[in-house]
Amino acid sequence: MRVVVLGATGMLGSRIVAEAADRGHHVTAVSRSGGRCRDGVVATIGDAADRERMRSVFLSSDVVIAATRPAPGEPGEVAALTDGLLGVAIDTDTRIIVIGGAGPLRSPSDPRVLVVDDPRYVRPEWRASAELSVAQLRACSGRPEADCTYVSPPAMIAPGRRTGRYRRGTTDLLVDRDGNSAIAAEDFAVAVVDELETPGHDRHFTVARLVEPSTGEDIDA
Questions:
Q1: Cβ partners under 8 Å of residue 126, min gap 6
Q2: E strands along the chain, which residues?
Q3: 110-152 pLDDT tens trace
Q4: Is the separation of the CB atoms in 49 and 84 below 8 Å?
Q5: Per-residue DSSP letter, 185
Q6: What domains lie within the chain, and their CATH numbers?
Q7: Any bridge partners for residue 114, and if so which?
């Protein structure tokens, strides 16, 4: 499959590139710097805000994974950036998977409360970023004609060990029995590429690390 990853040099984008390439997909890694990637991956320069450039990129792909974030100093542009990409996806009839945030998920303690408003999962210093993810999902919901899937990570995501396993949910934050919500970036990439290869029916879903129900420990720990 011809896969384009936008934001390919970021923490999540780079791992999605690696996972997709390891599975034999033809991957084009797009970033503002055009930085080098692993062997077998085509690296190219591209600004997600440049619609003409994105149109060319989308036309050369079967699916686009948008793991990009606004340029430094332009955090408020995430919703507009996403809306622009969705417009290009519609125009080119291209499937798009948008990597978002945990903010728009429902809190596990009260489904009436979004994670963005739950201080147990969103610290004050993270709130601005979480609010952007709520606006980003709203942009996706405003484009129902787009073949779009929005993927929310859990509350915590960081580089770690790839186990190849994870839990999948829908629009509720996934937590373990101690209330922790986390996943390794490598396993998040596994979930994204699984969705790429075998699309589900949910336009918005989330994942978290897989734990053993009786002990709460990582399955592969």
A1: none
A2: 2-6, 26-31, 42-45, 63-66, 95-99, 148-152, 156-158, 167-169, 182-184, 204-208
A3: 999 999 999 999 989 889 889 999 999 999 999 999 999 999 9
A4: yes
A5: H
A6: 2-208 (3.40.50.720)
A7: 106
